[in-house]
Write a structure and sequence with these properties.
- With about 230 residues, the chain is α+β, with helices and mostly antiparallel strands.
- It folds into 2 domains: about 5-140; about 145-230.
- It contains 6 helices and 10 strands; from the N terminus they run H-E-E-E-E-H-E-H-H-E-H-E-E-H-E-E.
- The chain has a 5-stranded antiparallel β-sheet with strand order 1-2-3-4-5.
- A hairpin with a 2-residue loop joins strand 1 and strand 2 (about 30-35).
- It is elongated, with a radius of gyration of 20 Å.
Length: about 230
């Protein structure tokens, strides 16, 4: 990365992007920001990627219950939205929330239009990132998509068994169209999560509850991951 591009990147973060994000209601400085919320850490983190002398950036968003963060005992006063702890109520990369549905990166380059990337990335945060982060926080405080299957205490008992393995917690267990839907911050490529959740699903299915005959796992964007039926 040339020194000129590096200086523009740092200047752009300091003088343009960070002030714009604060005007949108976020608090923070330079690379980590949060929305005020008494019950959650609602976070936005700038992710940098340096390859072949170039520097690109994007954003990670995460939602963590303050009570879960305190109980987990991780170091630091608050979560880092760029890290995966396994206790997130929701997390996503901003490109997943945009119409393209995949990673989106911005790069600040020297020239008369060097601020275009900064303005475009701030607009993406405003229109896609923050709206979804607020919606998720509101959803955590209230309504769910289906009929709740487990009480908060019952769900915590299931999640307690996941603390011994590096698998994200189950955020919701809901009945939807004859299926028990488990939602969490998992990905299809996470083989460990699939193995552990298969065991969890078989545990639910062994009760032979007439309300459902299949357990479905979905990520925090509601995308289906795995289905498990009775053996």
């Amino acid at each position: 990365m040339t020194s000129a591009a590096h200086e523009l990147f740092e200047r752009g973060l300091r003088d343009h992007l960070a002030p714009t994000l604060r005007l949108l209601g976020l608090t923070g400085w330079r690379r980590t920001f949060s929305l005020p919320d008494p019950a959650h850490w609602a976070l936005l983190g700038l992710v940098e990627q340096r390859t072949d002398g170039r520097l690109r950036y994007t954003f990670d968003l995460s939602l963590v219950r303050r009570a879960d963060w305190t109980a987990a005992g991780f170091p630091g006063p608050r979560p880092d939205p760029r890290a995966v702890y396994g206790i997130e109520a929701w997390r996503a990369r901003i490109g997943d929330l945009m119409p393209v549905g995949e990673d989106v990166w911005w790069e600040v380059l020297p020239g008369p239009r060097w601020r275009v990337a900064l303005d475009d990335s701030a607009a993406a945060v405003r229109h896609y990132g923050l709206s979804e982060l607020r919606r998720r926080a509101d959803r955590e405080r209230g309504a769910t998509a289906g009929e709740t299957y487990l009480s908060p205490a019952g769900l915590e008992q299931v999640n307690a068994a996941l603390l011994a393995v590096p698998v994200a917690r189950i955020q919701r267990a809901e009945l939807v169209d004859g299926a028990l839907v488990l939602t969490g911050a998992w990905t299809r490529a996470d083989a460990a999560a699939r193995t552990v959740l298969r065991g969890v699903a078989l545990g639910f299915l062994s009760a032979e509850d007439e309300l459902f005959a299949v357990v479905r796992c979905a990520d925090t964007l509601g995308r289906p991951l795995w289905d498990f039926g009775r053996p």
